[in-house]
Amino acid sequence: MSIAAIETEARNPDLFPDCDVCGTQAWIPVYQGPVRDGAYGNSRDGAVVAECVGCGVQRLDEVSCHDEDIYADESYRELLGESVDSEGFHAAHDPLQLERLNVVDPMTLRGRVIADVGCGGGSFLDFVSGLARYVVAIEPGRPYHDSLRSRGFHVYDYARNALDDCAGSVEHAFSFQVIEHVEAPGPFLSEIADLLAPGGRVTVSTPNRGDLLMNLLPDDYPPFFYRTVHRWYFSADSLARCGRAAGLDPVETRYVHRFGIANTLRWLRDKVPGGRDSLPGLDDQALDSIWRDSLAREGTADTIYMTFEKPVS
Ligand SMILES: [Zn+2]
C-alpha cells in the first residue's frame, strides 16, 4: 500500500473513528502490514496501526479488530489455542501470578473490598482473596462464572453490571492485560472509577509499546507485537492520559520484563519468539535478573503497570 493510500485509510472514520480517549479524529499511521491473529504463526495482512494526534494512544484499524463478543464464550481462548475451562486456565495462569503479587507489594489488601476486572478463571483472585473482605470478579467469559461463584466471588460480566451493588465501594481494583482488548478504554476506566471508593486505587497492566524489541527490530517485531485482539497500544504517557480523562490520578508506574536475555537474543538471531527457553551459556538467573531490572529502569520492559487513584473529592 502506498503512503498516500495508508494516509487515506487513517482518515476513514469506519477504520479510525473519533479517538475514544480524547475525542480527536486525527490519526497518523505508524504501521502497515501483517498483524498476529491468535496463536503465533497466524496473521492477518493489510492492517494499519495509527497514533492519535490528540493523546498519543495507538489503535488498530477497526476492520482488523475482533469484536468484543469473542470474550463471552470459548472463541477467544480457542483463537489463542488455549484451554477454555477453569482447570486449564489455572494451569496456564497460576504460575504467572508472582509477577502481579510483586507489583501489589508493599500495599496490603487485608480487610479491603477488591475487584479484578477481566479476571478470567480468577487465578490472581485466588492468591489474594484470603486477605480481602469482599471480592468482586468481573469477567465476560461465561464459561468461568460457575467456578468463580463457587469460590465465593461476586461475579459480573462487565464493570457496569456491578455498579448497582458496588458503586463507590471498591478499595483496590486490578485489571491485568485487559484495556488493550476493549472497544473503548475511556469508558472502560470510567466504569472502574465509578466502582472505586474515594481514595480507592486501580492497578492496570498492558503491553508496553516502548518494548525494547520494537526499537531493535522495527521490521520483524511489530507484526508479532500488533495483533487482532488488541485494539489499543499504550505508552506510559498515553495510558496516564487515558486515566486522567476518566478522572483518575496516576500515582505509580512500574515496568516489568517477563523474559530473560535469551528471549531478546533469540529474537535478534532467529526473528522468532523463544518464550522462556534459554540459550547455551545464557542460562543464568543472576544475569536475567539484572537484564529485567535494567529494562524496567529504562522503561523498555514488555509490560507497563500503572496505578491510579480516585480523588477524595
Ligand atoms: Zn486521542
Structure description:
The protein folds into two domains: 3-64, no CATH class; 68-219 and 234-257 and 300-309, Vaccinia Virus protein VP39 (Rossmann fold), CATH 3.40.50. The model has no long low-confidence stretch (mean pLDDT 93). By secondary structure, it is α/β, with parallel strands linked by helices. It is built from 13 helices and eleven strands. α8 (185-195) links the parallel β7 (170-176) and β8 (196-207). The strands form two sheets. A seven-stranded mixed sheet has the order 6-5-4-7-8-11-10, sandwiched between helices. The protein has a four-stranded antiparallel sheet with strand order 1-2-3-9. The chain binds zinc ion (ZN).
CATH class of the largest domain: Alpha Beta
**Helix amount:** 25-40%
Number of strands: 11
Annotated CATH homologous superfamily of the largest domain: Vaccinia Virus protein VP39
Rg of Cα set: 19 Å
Bound molecules: zinc ion
Distance between the termini: 51 Å
